[in-house]
Design a protein that fits this description.
single chain; about 100 residues; 3-stranded antiparallel beta sheet; elongated
Length: about 100
């Protein structure tokens, strides 16, 4: 009985934690449609043209730093997206706190 209760509580905790990365995507892997939709869900406008430019650019390079997006997106758009560098990847994480990467 104690095991069942522990299992249920663990599953509930996992289910509540799952949305933490909902809306997060890799600039190296996500389709353009997902990028646009996930940004829209967070109140950020990423146009299909911008998302397609990211997809086209990643055919020739792997995004690992914020600087890799320069030349693909404007500096203002990059700042708005506030991507994070994570495990040799560049991630849009709507839960990241802007300006806190260096801390």
């Amino acid at each position: 009985m104690k095991f069942a209760r522990t299992l249920v509580l663990t599953l509930m905790a996992c289910a509540m934690a799952a949305p933490a990365y909902a809306g997060a995507f890799s600039f190296n892997k996500a389709p353009a449609e997902k990028m646009v939709a996930d940004c829209k869900d967070e109140g950020i406008e990423l146009t299909m043209e911008e998302a397609n430019a990211i997809v086209a650019a990643r055919a020739n390079k792997h995004f690992t730093s914020v600087e890799d997006l320069e030349g693909v997106l404007t500096g203002r758009k990059i700042a708005e997206l506030d991507p994070i560098e994570e495990d040799d990847d560049l991630i849009f994480n709507p839960n990241a706190m802007p300006g806190m990467k260096a801390y």
